[in-house]
Amino acid sequence: MPLALTRIYKIEETMSVDEGRLSPQEAFRVLVGNTYWFGLVQVLDPETHFARCAAVAAQTEAFRLRRPRTLDLVNEVAQRIIKECLKKPSNE
C-alpha cells in the first residue's frame, strides 16, 4: 500500500542551513518543475497533470531547505529533515 505524501522539499544551495515554508503557489511551481516532461505530459494530458500538481500542492506541506553544497554539514541537514518529518503535518 502506498504511503501518503506529507511533505515536499525544495532544496536550494546557500552558505548556511536554513528552512522555511512554501506557499501553495510555490509548491505548485516546484511540483510542475520537477515532474513536467513534455513528451510524457503530452501523452497523459497537460491539463490533468497541472490539476494533479495543484491538488497535491494544496494538500501537502511544502518547505524550502537551504544548505551549502558540502558534506561538512550533511549530518545537520539530515537531522533537520528527520526532525521535521517526525512532526505531525498541520493539515491533519
What does it look like?
This protein is of the alpha+beta class. The protein has one domain (7-86). The chain contains four helices and three strands, in the order ββαααβα. It has a three-stranded mixed β-sheet with strand order 1-3-2. Helix 1 (24-35) crosses helix 3 (46-59). It is globular. The model has no long low-confidence stretch (mean pLDDT 85).
What topology emerges from the helices and strands here?
Blueprint: E1 7-13, E2 18-21, H1 24-35, H2 38-44, H3 46-59, E3 61-67, H4 74-86
Parallel strand pairs: 1-3
Antiparallel strand pairs: 2-3
Helix pairs in contact: 1-3
Bulk shape? globular
How many strand elements? Answer: 3
* Cα radius of gyration in angstroms: 15 Å
Q: How are the strands ordered across the major sheet?
A: 1-3-2
Can you count the helices?
4
